[in-house]
Amino acid sequence: MNDDSDSLEAFRGLGPDEILAAVEATGLRADGRVNALNSYENRVYQVGIEDGPPVIAKFYRPGRWSDECILEEHAFTLELAEAELPVVAPMRGGDGRTLFHAGPHRLALYPRVGGRAPELDDPDHLVMLGRCIARMHNIGALAPFRHRPTLDVESFAVEPARFLLDNGFVPDELRESYRVLAEHLVGRLRMRFDAVREVGRLRLHGDCHLGNILMRDGAPFLVDFDDARNGPAIQDLWMLLSGDRQYMTARVYDVLDGYTEFRDFDPRELSLIEPLRTLRQMHYAAWLARRWDDPAFPRAFPWFNTRRFWEEHILALKEQLALLDEPPIEWH
What we know:
alpha+beta; Transferase(Phosphotransferase), domain 1; 9 strands; 14% strand
């Protein structure tokens, strides 16, 4: 067994004693309380601390990010926090470190921040989110990530489709349908991204959905920058938009009303909403497949890799193919 396999096995078998020992190795004194939080890609726990509030301990999945990538994410969130943006940044140890090593494990500690999800039907919430994301993008545009990847068709569509086909996840009777559909989607996606190749790229949160936003004291807090990468600004906005075209257009105006108070927005980026939604759907299926040998995934996602899942996934992608031919939402 190689080192990566050893680390992955240790990660999957992470238990309370190891969690407490790893947290105490950072210089804190744990009080023995450990509560698992909802996370699958990494392992995340709330750990009680003697003479202080609990902390959130995030144990990184081996093989996903290099130390350089993790530290670059930490540096970005710390940069945002120092600019007084409402983000949850990693805690520094006594020597200033934010990434800790404990045996085969890598972990970071975060303060516990409570709150509730924003209401995307509330125009005021959307305006506030637009402002918050624009301020984040102003800092994200100062310099690109050097170690973290860029959001593109190759890594979010071509590679996922290839992985699913090469590793036998798509049922035999649906393989050809999926293969042909994926080829058509990749062609259309490349055309849509090529049409706006001059649109700027910047450091992004990367996964700005409801689960990663907390409303606290009347303001949004952004959490979990684990998927941070370079890409177009609309990537951090489109997940706040859903529904039919008329409803989504109204939400676009709300979000961009707030966004443009702090940062200009290139309306050409609106043509990437459906392409980015398509990339997310294709990437998500492959993400589940890549993690299917982790026992936590079949337990959490029992519906994945069934015939019904693949039939519905292919149908959803066909609907996206049709949407890729529609004109983009207009704004101002």
